[in-house]
Specification:
Elements: E1 22-27, H1 38-45, E2 50-57, E3 66-73, E4 77-78, E5 81-82, E6 97-103, E7 106-111, E8 117-122, E9 127-130, E10 135-140, E11 146-153, H2 161-166, E12 170-175, E13 178-183
Antiparallel strand pairs: 1-2, 2-3, 3-11, 4-5, 6-9, 6-11, 7-8, 7-10, 12-13
The structure holds fructose -6-phosphate and fe (ii) ion (FE2).
GO molecular function, one term: iron ion binding
Family: Belongs to the archaeal-type GPI family.
EC number: 5.3.1.9
Amino acid sequence: MEYKLPIGVNIDLETGVIPGAKKLVRRLSNLKGYFQDEDAYNELLKEDPVVYEVYAVEQEEKDGDLNFATTVLYPGKVGKEFFFTKGHFHAKADRAEIYYGIKGKGGMLLQTPEGKAEWIPMGPGTVVYVPPYWAHRTVNTSDEPFIFLAIYPADAGHDYGSIAEKGFSKLVIEENGEVKVIDNPRWKE
Ligand SMILES: O=C(CO)[C@@H](O)[C@H](O)[C@H](O)COP(=O)(O)O
Ligand SMILES: [Fe+2]
């Protein structure tokens, strides 16, 4: 039997960088169709800011193994809507996940395949258990980067399709200086 070697790395708690990890950058242009306010989207697209970066240490997609990744979700808004990650179901939909808040403030929107949504506020030290079958998206509700760690089965995969098409049944917006979680007017069952 060939054994894999263990890994020990230090996450930079200020920047979220994991040394040696694979880096993925998502700009606003990668999130076309995701935000409600298309005029605000097109306006901000001129700058095409980085919305988030992911630093991932991933294994082969095998049952029983684990991946881990940090996400650095930058502050910003498109219209009233706070910057967020695309959000996904796992391709193997029954795979659960753990998130751990490192820095900054935000939260997670979770949603069942039927569209029942939950909002969990997150800050440094918050652990979120993402149960099997729930889609999940993180949102930065502050004016600093929101940084967190995710630990997930190596064979979970990502299924972006239905969220890209339909979005979440709730939106996280700023209104009168307050963070509000409201029903998505464009949500269709
Ligand atoms: O949930 C996971 C992995 O299962 C996170 O590592 C996200 O992949 C990351 O926060 C970016 O978000 P998405 O663009 O993948 O939705
Ligand atoms: Fe996930």
